[in-house]
Design a protein that fits this description.
Helix content: 40-55%
Shape: elongated
Number of helices: 9
CATH architecture of the largest domain: 3-Layer(aba) Sandwich
Radius of gyration: 17 Å
Distance between the termini: 10 Å
Number of domains: 2
Structural class: alpha/beta
CATH class of the largest domain: Alpha Beta
Largest sheet: 6 strands, parallel
CATH superfamily of the largest domain: HAD superfamily/HAD-like
Order of helices and strands: EEHHHEHEHEHEHEHEH
Strand order of the largest sheet: 5-4-1-6-7-8
């Protein structure tokens, strides 16, 4: 079935947010005398929402979890657009999808306000059809509820939508929502994780998603 839309993950798929996430969390940990981590270590701390980032960062110091969490949320809200950057080719890919009439959507476990702020800053002019971050009452990915809410909002079926992300959580979410999954190889997790979690397609650069779309259009 010809696709009419794409749901993207955000962190590790459209943007590299690790520089700002790691800096904000390391500053928050330092406030309470806890050690920080190298930037790359956060590739395996992010993805499941802000609570999990804090939980994985404080480790055995669970008595400081709430304090670190709140400090991080305040810090990141003010510093989410300092060293973060859009991956090379992503703005052109998004514009190419828009030019082809595709509905462009984002589903993130990042807080809703942070998700909206980052997208507005790094992708001005892109006509997103739906943006969903973490909100109370909606389970986080890999639960497919958020993805289904987006489909309902934009009025297309599961079979008419690609799901694009960089982690097993994303592939599990897209597969659970019965969408065709695309794993990106420029993100936070390796090829092996994406293959093991059932990615239907793997792409090494953003332009390849347009190639997938064009292949369907030209059938």
């Amino acid at each position: 079935m010809r696709k009419k839309g794409v749901i993207f993950d955000l962190d590790g798929t459209l943007i590299n947010s690790l520089p700002d996430i790691s800096a904000a969390m390391n500053r928050s940990l330092a406030k309470f005398g806890l050690p920080g981590f190298e930037e790359n270590a956060y590739k395996y701390k992010v993805g499941n929402g802000v609570f999990k980032i804090a939980e994985r960062s404080v480790g055995e110091h669970t008595e400081l979890l709430e304090d670190v969490l709140h400090a991080y949320m305040e810090d990141y809200a003010q510093n989410s657009r300092v060293s973060t950057y859009a991956y090379k080719g992503v703005p052109e890919m998004l514009q190419g999808l828009a030019d082809r009439g595709m509905k462009i959507c984002v589903l993130s476990n990042k807080d809703q306000t942070d998700t909206e702020n980052v997208l507005a800053y790094y992708f001005p002019g892109i006509p997103f059809s739906a943006i969903r971050g973490r909100v109370e009452g909606v389970p986080l990915k890999p639960d497919p509820t958020g993805a289904q809410l987006i489909l309902d909002q934009i009025g297309i079926t599961n079979e008419e939508c690609w799901y694009v992300g960089d982690t097993s959580m994303d592939m599990n979410c897209g597969n659970a929502a019965q969408m065709e999954t695309v794993g990106v190889l420029w993100g936070f997790r390796p090829r092996e994780e994406l293959v093991a979690s059932g990615a239907k397609h793997l792409i090494a650069e953003p332009r390849e998603l347009l190639d997938l779309v064009d292949a369907q259009i030209n059938r």
